[in-house]
Amino acid sequence: MSAATATTASTTTTTVVAPSDTLDGTALAAAAASKYKPTTVEHGNTPITLDVGLLSSFDVNPLTKSYNTDREAYLCSRARNATQALINHIFQLPVSRHPDHGPLAALPRFTTRLPREKSMPKPKPLTKWEKFAKAKGISSKKKDKMVYDEATGEWVPRWGYGGINKKEEDQWIHVLKSGEDADTDPAARARGERKARKLKNESQRLKNEARARAEMASSSKATDTLGGPTNKKTGLGSGSADQIAKAAARQKRKAELEADVLRNRTSTASMGRFDKRLDGETKPKGIKRKFDPAEGDTTAERAQSLALLSKLGKGAPTSSSMRRKMAGQGDDELVNARKAVKFATNGSGINALKGKGRSGAAGGKKGGRK
C-alpha cells in the first residue's frame, strides 16, 4: 500500500491511494479451514454417549457402506468424531486455575457401572442378643466408657485400670449385711463375681462365633472349594489349573497360619500346657525323646564303654591338657572328657582330684616324721 503526504505551513494533508490488488479474507479463512477439521460433531441416528467422569465416549451407531471402501479411514473418522464430542463437553465444564498446572476442568462423577472383581460381601450374622433386640424393637446404645463416681467426684473408667467395677475390691472398709458370717471377705467375693462375669461374657462370645460360623456354612451353597471331588492327601479338588493353583495357595496359607498359632501357643511359660483351649483345637505335639533299643547289636555300646574306660585310665586331665584339647579337638571330645572327670569325682571336678593328691602326699610325709 502506498501513500503521498503534502505539508504546508498551516495544515498537513495525507492522501491514501488504494492498491491495485485487494486482500481477500474469504480465501484466508478457507485456507485455515482446510488445515484444521471442524469441531462440529455428527451424531448420526443415535447420539454419542459420553461418560466425562471416565473420559470416555461411546458411538453405538451401525457401520455404513463406507466401511467396506476404506476401513482404516472410516474407523479413524468415527473415532475422531466421538473424541471431538468428548472434548467439546470438557470445554463446557467449570475450570479452576492452578499455579503450577494451569487451568483444570472439574470432572463430574462417572455414570458407567463397572463390574466388581469379587462378589458382594455377605452380611455379618447377628448375635443372639442382636436378634432378640431386633425382634423386640430394642435400640442398641453403647455404654459410655467413663462414668461419674459420686464418692470421689471424678470421672473414672467403667472397667480396666482404676475402673469403677473394682471399687468394692479396693475399698478399705466394708459393711456386712445382717446375717452374714463375720469371716466373710467382701473383697474376695466381689473379685470372684467380677471374674465370673468375665468368664460368662467370654463364653457368650465363643457361642456367638460358633453360631455365626454355622450360619455362614449353611448359607454357602458351594460344598467344595473347586466344586468337585477332593483329594484327601492334597486337599485339592479336580478343577482347572487356575483353580488348583488357587486352592494350593490357600492350603499353604492355612498351614502357615496353623504354624503361627502353634508357635504363639508354645510361647508361654508353661509351653502352652496350662493354657485354655478353644473348642475343636488340637493338642500341641511335643518332641519325643529317642532311646536306644534295649536289645540288639552291642557293638556300638561296647565301643562307647571302651572309649570311656580308656579316658578314665589316663588320669585326671590338667588345665593345660584341657586347653590343648579345646584347641586341637572338637567340642564332642571336650564334653566327653568332662563327663568322665565328673563321673570319677562324683561331680567335684578336676580340683578335687588335685586336692586329693596333695592331701595324700602331705599325709605320707607326716607319717614318716612320726
TrEMBL record:
The name on file for this protein is Ribosome biogenesis regulatory protein
Q: What InterPro entries is this protein classified in?
A: Ribosom_reg
Q: Where is this region: Disordered?
A: 177-331, 348-370
Going by the UniProt record, its keywords in alphabetical order are: Nucleus, Ribosome biogenesis
Per the record, the major location class is: nucleus
Does the record's keyword annotation contain Nucleus?
yes
Composition-biased stretches, type Gly residues, lie in: 358-370
Q: What does this protein do?
A: Involved in ribosomal large subunit assembly.
Q: Where is the composition biased (Basic and acidic residues)?
A: 177-214, 254-263, 273-293
State the similarity comment.
Belongs to the RRS1 family.
Instruction: Note whether Zinc occurs among the keywords.
Output: no
Question: What does the entry list under GO cellular component?
Answer: nucleus
Q: Give the subcellular location.
A: Nucleus
Biological processes, Gene Ontology terms: ribosome biogenesis
